[in-house]
Amino acid sequence: MSKEELENQYSPSRWVVRLGAEEALRTYSQIGNEATKRAQATGRNLLDVPYGDGEGEKLDIYFPEAVSEALPFLVFFHGGYWQSGSKDSSAFMVGPLTAQGVAVVIVAYDIAPKAPTLCTGTLDQMVDQVTQSIVFVQKEYPGNQGIYLCGHSAGAHLAAMMLLANWTKRGVTPNLKGFFLVSGIYDLEPVTHTSENAPLLTTLEDAQRNSPQWRLKTSPAQPVDPACRVLVTVGQHDSPEFHRQSREFYQTLRRGGWKASFEELHDVDHFEILWNLTQKDYVLTQIILKTIFQES
Q1: Exposed, middle or buried, 134 (CB in 10 Å: 0-12/13-18/19+)?
Q2: What is the per-residue pLDDT across 120-161, written as a single tens digit (0 to 9) for each?
Q3: Residue 153 appears among annotated catalytic residues
């Protein structure tokens, strides 16, 4: 594939069908900001909770009305090509999920800096921070009824890397019950040939080390809990490369013995697939709730 075609395939805003690229990005930000303001206005939350010592290592926890130790937790990692996005505009799913008794955690991590000479915001650091955030949730809420990881785009990549985490090294094994991977990238090598890599400065070695697809194919990891479900989803109007990445990662998971499923969500693009989580009747909202509450 030529450099120009790779650039096109890995530019999700070029594939939107209802809005122009800029308008789609604006709408995505607006819906995320509004959902977050609504979630914060309930007062049933803990904001900017430190999960580590770094300035960017903060998370927000949104609780349902009936708070108890024995809640299921959905932990969300935002997208933005590891260089944009924020927890402060990513609480899309908080309303519908907390209404059904699920606590939602939105995690911040150090995105790649505008000046790549700075040593923060590397992929290895982001993976480490995401791992830390899950350890924090497990330690703070040891009586949880399951931790479910959800990520969008680059956030789906970070969530998928948790399939490979060494929890023994962390001294705690989180009660992971499910993964919801939404329009993600699982093999980073193609991205190293696009302009998105400029702030990341990712080498081929970095890309392989941080590619769950490559890692699981070359040295398969066994599921810690065979019952843990992994849902790989992609939007109908995502680019062909996003479709390929999702299908191949799903197939790799199945071959590795994971309880994986694949869903192509009808008539949504890379941004609608996430912003529709503000709606309780949206198909992905319902899939998430049915998975958490073990309904077939």
Answers
A1: buried
A2: 568 999 999 999 999 999 999 999 999 999 999 999 999 999
A3: yes
